[in-house]
Write a structure and sequence with these properties.
alpha+beta, DAGKc domain-containing protein, single chain, disordered N terminus, 4-stranded parallel sheet, elongated
Length: 263
């Protein structure tokens, strides 16, 4: 039986700690393994509950969290519900001195009571709280806050299948697609078929259907999209549409420059 997640941990209270949420949950694969989970405004802290001394704890910065979802089990027999948080922290590369963002998934089973709907609501409460807290960790530069789009958001993603030595589409399906699902971002995928395809599409599209346009290619496709926006009759409003760029070209100099500026 899990502890009420709204009740703070007494030991942490004695240490002057005041968390946003605290709960004890089981491992998704082994009910005998339990974790204490605490959520603050900036981090998710996970510690395995054990009688052994020197319990290790793991702290995930919410600035590395792309999303969190709650869901029921695969069958109706399980009364528990689950929530899974997705993180992409910097980690050292294998056999390399460099670091890169690597995917880490943290999943927990909620079984406070025998009512599966109550358990699902509790899992949804945690998922919602983690998503909300991660939004508040948006990066800042010179006092400017880079906030994310509203959730759920609708995105048009344009991919040039010939860019990046013909690997842009493979990069999308192999890496980006799963991250969009984890972040609860719905999207329309457009694979460009010829030169100026994106330019023509954006020039005539009903942009009210999307909250953002994302380009996965080299620099050329981004220029096509910008030109298409500027050629519209409502260009002054259209150019306010948020644009994103994912490195899918060979050199990706523009994507690297934008990333460096946003740090």
């Amino acid at each position: 039986m899990e502890k009420d997640a709204s009740a703070p941990d007494p030991s942490q209270q004695r240490n002057g700690f005041s968390g946003v949420l605290y709960g004890e949950f089981t491992d998704t694969l082994n009910d005998g393994v339990r974790y204490s989970v605490s959520l603050t405004e900036s981090a998710l802290t996970i510690q395995r509950i054990s009688s052994s001394p020197g319990r290790t704890k793991v702290v995930f910065n919410l600035s590395d969290c792309v999303g969190c979802r709650a869901y029921r089990g695969p069958d109706n027999v399980d009364i528990g519900a689950y929530f899974t948080a997705y993180f992409y922290p910097f980690k050292r590369r294998w056999m390399s001195a460099g670091v890169a963002r690597q995917r880490v998934e943290q999943c927990f089973r909620v079984a406070l009571v025998q009512d599966p709907l109550v358990n699902l609501r509790e899992a949804e409460r945690w998922a919602h709280a983690i998503r909300d807290a991660s939004v508040l960790q948006a990066p800042r530069r010179d006092g400017v806050v880079y906030t994310e789009l509203r959730r759920p958001c609708r995105t048009m993603i344009l991919v040039n299948p010939h860019s990046g030595r013909g690997q842009a589409l493979q990069l999308f399906t192999g890496h980006i697609q799963a991250m969009l699902t984890e972040a609860s971002v719905s999207y329309t995928l457009v694979i460009t078929e010829h030169q100026n395809h994106a330019r023509e599409l954006v020039r005539n599209a009903d942009l009210s259907q999307w909250d953002a346009l994302v380009i996965m290619s080299g620099d050329g496709l981004l220029f096509e999209v910008i030109n298409g926006l500027m050629e519209r009759e409502d260009w002054q409003q259209a150019i306010q549409t948020p644009l994103g760029i994912l490195p899918g070209g060979s050199g990706n100099a523009l994507a690297a420059s934008i990333h460096n500026y946003s740090q």
